[in-house]
Design brief:
Layout: H1 4-19, H2 27-41, H3 48-75, H4 80-97, H5 99-116, H6 121-158
Helix pairs in contact: 1-2, 1-6, 2-3, 2-6, 3-4, 3-6, 4-5, 5-6
Keywords: Membrane, Transmembrane, Transmembrane helix
Pfam family, one: DUF456
Protein name: DUF456 family protein
Length: about 160
Amino acid sequence: MVELVFVVAVGLLVAGVAGSVLPLIPAGLVSLAGVWTYVLFGAEPVGVLAVVSLTLAGLATVVLEQFAGPLAARASGASTEVTVASAIGGLLMLLVLGPIGIIVGVVGTVFLLELKNGSDTERAAKRSLYTAVGVLASSVAQVLLTLSMLAVFVLSVTLF
């Protein structure tokens, strides 16, 4: 018989995968909640290596969720002011437009502030494009990390 704690843990890990494409769900934290729910309350022990690996993957997902877009803006040459403002712009637009609002907010903020700060249109557009690629690459990485967490968790609990 399948244990209820296992079902809850897997449900949280699946929700974490969904959260990697739905920004209203914190993918990394939800996935970590699934792992640690089972570690703390599950009947079968989970190996130390699996727990450490899953925890590190979850923490990496949390970092990607929060900082990939602004870090991509910074890497493209945007100022610290623009980087911080893009993070705030993404959060605010998330509330207005939903998931697409993060991309619109981050990219739009970078573009507008770069123009305001004296960049020409081409440079502002280039930095905005790099930022958009960073946000989208972050989503792909989050999906891969959370799917990997789900697979490793299920395998480590059911096979070992």
